[in-house]
Design a protein that fits this description.
six-stranded mixed beta sheet, alpha/beta, about 375 residues
Length: about 375
Amino acid sequence: MGNTAVVVGGGIGGLAAAIGLRRVGWEVRVVERAAVLDDAGAGISLAANGLRALDELGVGAAVRGASRGQYTGGTRTPGGARIARMDGAALERAVGAPIMGIPRSTLHRLLRDALPAAALVTGAEVTSVDQAGPGAVRVECGAAVLEADLVVAADGIGSAVRRRLFPDHPGPVHSGSTVLRAITEHPVDLRTDFELTWGRGAEFGHIAFLDGRAEWHAVLSLPAGTRFTDPRAELRRRFSGWHDPIPALLDATRPEAVLHHDVNELRTPLPSYAVGRIALLGDAAHAMTPNLGQGACQALEDAVALAAALGAGPTVEAALLRYDTERRPRSQAVARAARQAGRMGQQLSHPLAIALRNTAMRLTPSRISTRMLLRHHAWVPPSLN
């Protein structure tokens, strides 16, 4: 079995895949169309399954050192009434780690630092990926042509490689929501590590970081393509009267720092995550809504599972079949659960439905809520040693 790989896409999943492949003896080159590999963005939550994957990749300790555990918080109404309480300590006892909050750019930097600089090629857009024969894949990047034993498509929800492999697949669709988010410019006085607030067709949440700053996000039920001239001013209007610290989080944010993206997903599951010697990973394979905070965690699981399968051999094709068999059922189940969570959360708009949901959540013991999370968090990675 050959041991050269090209990873298309230098996001979290692509970098993690490259690290994993190198740990099992592969030569890897990551090709990213952006000129600068910084994955600028807001914040991210890492559950125990994602942290275990990072441990297996050798960067778990560094990520934990740059993260803040989510022990306190929960879910509220716009007026501040508690719907559900977070018990991070109970979750940690159950799965060995709390959910951790970290700036996305920090996680990206730690992953980059685990790779040699020569392995990263930036400012190069992949224009074609084709099976070059029974033992190689041909990758065209502008005028350059690369040949490898394996190609890993980690090129995101709009994956060009996925479109080439599955031309009849409908691709990503709009979930019905749009999200605005940012990191505060300076520390904010927060009483909780993590919080969600659900209103009619709207959600506001925050993640506290180690340095006192926080990531906040606002999810709104709006048509695709909706944009605002002044996003922060629009959010101040929409969330006027919502409980503290929502006004303080918006006030602590520079207007130009607000990011705005439609929430899209691969609602139609792919029939396979591998074709020949090409593997799909992360959002390219199973882009999901963010309602369970599992998007990046599933990509990290993919990276470790792929590396373990290739490390075990005996052929690339056999390894990718094993990868697909292992990853597709789990990641697609998580995607379905995330979609359902969104429908029962921010997307609810009828007052009676909201009242019934809130009552059910208040009556649900915290141990039951913790047990529901275990389906997603209690994942044990294969060994790469």
